[in-house]
């Protein structure tokens, strides 16, 4: 009965509020405005009828008083017309009926040509007074005053209020009875069982006799949900959690119960290329691959990616799959084949000339072509079909990666509605004003909102996404919970700062730091005493390579003592060389390097050493370990893992990191020298400070940053997302059981 009252009392209260609001509204709208309007219409008809007679009498004033009284007498025979009067041009009452109240004069709105009206309350009751101008052929004769008795409205208003009151009482009684009946009939056992569960009976003690048999389909899920909450509480204390491949596998087994994991990205982790009739394996220069490859080795799932190597088709099986890593296979790559036209439009065109330029805001105008968009859509469809083909269950955990596949989450959700889709956007996400210039912005946003979980590097990028959705998509944005509901699909938007494997597998084969120093100087024909700065990037205009070189040049201008004592080695992996913007950028980089070397170079000494070629991770790590400075000058970047790789490589706790403030890493690696890459003088000063920094200060800075990277490594990044996915999947299963159970009860 108490539960029933919880339904009934709020219902009665709500109906009372509605009645309280409707009664005055009805009184004002129906009985005052509507009836008043009716009276005014009747008044116009009366004036129209009397006007000619009144004008005729006024123009022939003989016995005018008697004639007008006869006219007025016939008019007030209307049961509601109480009195009449005529006001002359001097605004005086010339003629009136005996019933005309003395309180009414001709002074009201005396100069108004349009009909006017008012309601006055006299001891006899309320009266409606209307003033109508009497005109003919442009000549004004005066005004006719009509007085209606509207006391009947009060009685009608009172009767209606009573009717509405009784109606709501009857309605509340009927609904209450129905509510009580359904509650008692359908939910008695449910309520009993849920009360037992909330008390801990049958949940914390599975063998308890108080467990309701009707709840058996969901009790298991409820137990798992509580355990999940307990797990979440424990994992918040990351200092007590060792995030590594082993702990990630434990999460997959315990929280996801060994569920199937699929990763989808444009770039593949291993590329097979044919050189000199031999097939070689390349590890691409990609932060995405650097972060995800260790995860896949732990998950033992399937990585779906575009097969871009010229020997990729030679090594796959009949299902386009290949086991990797080559020396110790632990997962498989499923390659998706794209035609040259698709690759040109989807990857080089829309993805990189369009979205990449749009999101990085590096003063390069994005280019959008409808032909590129068509190829982008087609490529996303191919990836979606591959996901369906590779999925062994109808509810896999799918990790969609980056801007190349923005349409994919929605496409997968349409084909596999039960799938848990985690999408991570690896580049910055701009504000609505910037993103809004994309002709297909709505389609991209809707595609991303097919995700269950949508991750960005920073909270700033999350807020930009929420603002953009709020601006352009008809959906419900809840900023308190950071969720978006679009067409019934709930998407959780959160920041998951990406990191690297720690310790990196590439450190296993590294020589001591001293040997690395000697080797890279010998390899580049440099004196052993020379200080070296290192930059490792794809040859991309967003990486600030030109600004980096200009900072070196400015250093030599401000501090000439470093000429001949400091060289900067730039490793620039070729990237997107078919795009004109990248071709021009490479030319500019080469030209600036030549200019600086011609200006400050000497025999046997080059200030800038530019290496536009691919380097394996082992080689890159050797350069990290053999250099005194790592300079990351990105003009705009999502995270930038080069900064974290450099810190992770320095187990000698020496070296200085100069880091752009426009990287996500600058929010974490606070002990680096943070600079504005557009401020060349500031960057040059940072180089000088780095070159003269005492070893003890270097050690303190590096040690702090290494501790952070160790604690917040890539396994923690993946673990957080997978824990979120695990909670989401358990919640969906629980709600699904509750829904099925409820439907079953109602059908009984």
Structure explained in plain terms:
The chain is 49% helix and 17% strand. With 748 residues, it is α/β, with parallel strands linked by helices. The strands form four sheets. A ten-stranded mixed β-sheet has the order 10-11-9-6-12-13-14-17-16-15, with helices on both faces. A six-stranded parallel β-sheet has the order 20-19-18-21-22-23, with helices on both faces. Strands 2-1-5-4-3 form a five-stranded antiparallel β-sheet. Strand 12 (397-401), helix 11 and strand 13 form a beta-alpha-beta unit. Helix 6 (245-254) crosses helix 7 (287-299). The protein is elongated.
Rounded mean pLDDT score: 85
Q: CATH homologous superfamily of the largest domain, by name?
A: Glycogen Phosphorylase B
* Proportion of residues in helical segments: 40-55%
User: Rounded to an integer, what's the Rg over CA atoms?
Assistant: 41 Å
Shape: elongated
Tally of strands:
23
Amount of beta strand: 15-25%
Name the CATH architecture of the largest domain: 3-Layer(aba) Sandwich
Order of strands in the sheet with most strands: 10-11-9-6-12-13-14-17-16-15
CATH topology of the largest domain, anyone? Rossmann fold
Structural class, from helix and strand content? alpha/beta
Number of helices: 22
Question: What profile does the largest beta sheet have?
Answer: 10 strands, mixed
Low-confidence stretches: 197-211, 233-240
Q: How widely separated are the two ends?
A: 22 Å
């Amino acid at each position: 009965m108490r539960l029933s009252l919880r339904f009934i009392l709020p219902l009665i209260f709500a109906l009372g509020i509605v009645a309280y609001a409707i009664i005055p509204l009805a009184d004002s709208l129906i009985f005052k405005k509507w009836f008043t309007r009716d009276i005014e219409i009747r008044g116009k008809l009366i004036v129209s009828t009397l006007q000619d007679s009144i004008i005729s009498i006024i123009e022939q004033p003989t016995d005018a008083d008697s004639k007008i009284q006869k006219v007025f007498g016939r008019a007030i025979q209307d049961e509601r017309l109480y009195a009449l009067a005529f006001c002359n041009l001097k605004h005086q009452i010339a003629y009136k009926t005996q019933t005309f109240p003395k309180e009414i004069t001709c002074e009201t709105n005396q100069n108004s040509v349009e009909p006017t009206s008012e309601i006055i309350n006299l001891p006899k009751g309320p009266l409606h007074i209307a003033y109508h101008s009497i005109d003919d052929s442009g000549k004004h004769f005066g005004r006719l005053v009509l007085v209606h008795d509207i006391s009947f409205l009060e009685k009608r208003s009172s009767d209606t209020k009573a009717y509405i009151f009784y109606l709501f009482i009857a309605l509340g009684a009927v609904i209450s009875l129905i509510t009580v009946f359904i509650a008692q009939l359908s939910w008695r056992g449910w309520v009993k069982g849920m009360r037992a569960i909330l008390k801990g009976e049958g949940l914390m003690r599975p063998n308890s006799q108080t467990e309701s048999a009707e709840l058996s389909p969901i009790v298991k899920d409820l137990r798992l949900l509580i355990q999940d909450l307990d797990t979440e509480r424990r994992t918040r204390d990351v200092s007590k959690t060792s995030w590594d491949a082993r702990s990630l596998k434990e999460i997959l087994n315990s929280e996801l119960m060994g569920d199937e994991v699929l990763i989808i990205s444009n770039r593949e982790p291993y590329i097979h290329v044919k050189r000199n009739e031999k097939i070689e394996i390349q590890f691409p220069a990609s932060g995405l691959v650097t972060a995800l490859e260790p995860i896949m080795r732990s998950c033992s799932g399937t990585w779906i990616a575009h097969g871009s190597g010229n020997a990729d088709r030679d090594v796959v099986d009949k299902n386009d799959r290949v086991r990797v890593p080559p020396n110790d296979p632990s997962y498989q790559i499923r390659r998706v084949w794209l035609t040259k036209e698709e690759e040109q439009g989807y990857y080089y065109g829309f993805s990189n000339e369009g979205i990449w330029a749009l999101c990085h805001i590096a003063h390069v105008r994005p280019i959008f072509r409808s032909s590129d968009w068509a190829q982008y859509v087609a490529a996303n469809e191919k990836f979606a079909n591959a996901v369906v083909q590779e999925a062994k269950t109808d509810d896999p955990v799918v990790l969609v990666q980056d801007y190349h596949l923005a349409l994919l989450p929605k496409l997968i959700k349409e084909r596999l509605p039960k799938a848990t889709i985690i999408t991570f956007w690896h580049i910055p996400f701009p504000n609505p004003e910037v993103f809004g210039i994309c002709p297909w912005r709505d389609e991209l946003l809707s595609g991303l909102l097919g995700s269950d979980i949508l991750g960005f590097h920073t909270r700033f990028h999350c807020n930009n996404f929420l603002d953009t959705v709020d601006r352009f998509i008809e959906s419900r944005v809840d900023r308190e919970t950071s969720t978006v509901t679009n067409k019934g699909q709930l998407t959780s938007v959160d920041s998951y700062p990406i990191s690297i494997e720690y310790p990196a597998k590439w450190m296993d084969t590294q020589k001591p730091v001293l040997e690395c120093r000697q080797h890279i100087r010998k390899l580049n024909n440099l004196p052993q005493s020379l200080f070296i700065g290192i930059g490792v990037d794809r040859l991309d205009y967003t990486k600030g390579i030109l600004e980096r070189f200009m900072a070196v040049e400015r250093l030599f201008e401000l501090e000439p003592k470093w000429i001949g004592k400091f060289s900067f080695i730039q490793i620039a992996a070729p990237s997107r060389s078919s795009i004109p913007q990248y071709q021009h950028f490479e030319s500019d980089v080469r030209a600036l390097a030549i200019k600086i070397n011609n200006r400050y170079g000497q025999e046997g000494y080059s200030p800038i050493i530019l290496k536009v070629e691919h380097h394996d991770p082992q080689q890159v790590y050797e350069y990290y370990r053999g250099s005194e400075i790592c300079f990351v000058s990105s003009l705009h970047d999502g995270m930038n893992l080069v900064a974290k790789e450099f810190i992770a490589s320095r187990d000698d706790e020496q070296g200085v990191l100069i880091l752009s403030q426009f990287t996500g890493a600058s929010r974490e690696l606070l002990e680096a020298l943070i600079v504005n890459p557009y401020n060349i003088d500031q960057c040059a000063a940072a180089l000088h400070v780095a070159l003269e920094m005492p070893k003890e200060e270097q050690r303190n800075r590096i040690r702090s940053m290494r501790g952070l990277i160790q604690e917040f490594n890539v396994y923690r990044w993946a673990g957080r997302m997978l824990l979120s996915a695990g909670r989401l999947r358990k919640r969906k299963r629980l709600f699904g059981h509750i829904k099925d159970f409820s439907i079953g009860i109602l059908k009984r």
